[in-house]
Amino acid sequence: MPVCTVYLLCLHNSVATFVAALKNTPLKPLIVARVARWIITPSTLSQETLLHPAQPWDVLLILRTTSTILPKELEPLVKNQWSIQAGVPSKLLSSFESTNRHLLDPSTGDLPPLSGALSHPKIAKSSQALELSDELRRWISSDKAPKGAVTMLNLLAFAPNRKDEYLKYGQAFAESIGSRRGGIAKIVGKVVHGSCSDGCDEWEEIALAHYPSLDHFADMIASEDYQEVNMRYRIPSLKDTCILCTSELAIEQHGSKASL
């Protein structure tokens, strides 16, 4: 199974400077994304390193590599980094570039309509259980939130003997509660033992979820059909988790323009 390395990067300079340097390396990233904010923060695992870096995370970078060392051209641009590795099924990677391109730039007719859940949303005090809070709703409506498609990085650690319950959640996400809002798990991988840069060896899986927009994501988590499955299967199955919202950057190597 191919190994991918997930990096979170704090930069000395702008994201544009980093992307310009990246496109002049031989690397062909699976994902280059601007970090927006945490949707869910970890309750115990990797808290210090993930939530208290030298400065807020700027970039999510995912490479198909077994090395955690960035090319020498990029090292001077990076102030701080965190990384973890995961084995990702070959079938997910074989057509990932074309599939992801279509997800990020869909035809108008490919965008699913909202379900109407935001007209009468179920509001929670916090988004920590993957529910819509007033604070999260205000941010989604603000100028600070990404416009267009978003990519959510999920780190997962399972409660003892509860992985099968999470798989039921994943199946419902793929078949109904996520897919009807355009949600799709485009990368899922099993964490490589001992690969977390902060020494935490309890994260078990990574997942990268796509949504056509933050409104589609909010429509999902505000709905009764989603929360029924969330409360029944997802929440009881997890020992810890976190979700980081990002917006992907289009990058072309060898002199082409990067879309920032």
The main sheet orders its strands as: 1-3-2-10-7-9-8-4
Specify Rg, calculated over alpha carbons.
18 Å
Head-to-tail CA distance between termini = 32 Å
Shape: globular
Instruction: Encode the helix/strand succession as letters.
Output: EHEHEEHHEEHEHEEHHE
Mean pLDDT: 95
Structural class: alpha+beta
Helix content: 25-40%
Count every helix, treating DSSP H or I runs of 4 or more residues as helices. Answer: 8
Main sheet? 8 strands, antiparallel, barrel
Strand content: 25-35%
- Strands, total number: 10
Q: Unreliable segments (pLDDT under 50, ≥5 consecutive)?
A: 253-259
Explain the overall architecture.
Helices cover 28% and strands 28% of the residues. Helix 6 runs antiparallel to helix 8. The chain has 260 residues and is of the alpha+beta class. It has helices spanning 15-22, 47-51, 90-94, 96-104, 134-141, 163-177, 214-221, 224-237, and strands at 3-11, 31-40, 59-63, 78-87, 123-124, 132-133, 150-158, 184-191, 205-211, 238-248. The chain is globular, with a radius of gyration of 18 Å.
Write a brief structural summary.
The chain is an alpha+beta fold and 260 residues long. Helices cover 28% and strands 28% of the residues.
Any chance you could write out the topology, listing elements then pairs?
Blueprint: E1 3-11, H1 15-22, E2 31-40, H2 47-51, E3 59-63, E4 78-87, H3 90-94, H4 96-104, E5 123-124, E6 132-133, H5 134-141, E7 150-158, H6 163-177, E8 184-191, E9 205-211, H7 214-221, H8 224-237, E10 238-248
Parallel strand pairs: 5-6
Antiparallel strand pairs: 1-3, 1-4, 2-3, 2-10, 4-8, 7-9, 7-10, 8-9
Helix pairs in contact: 6-8
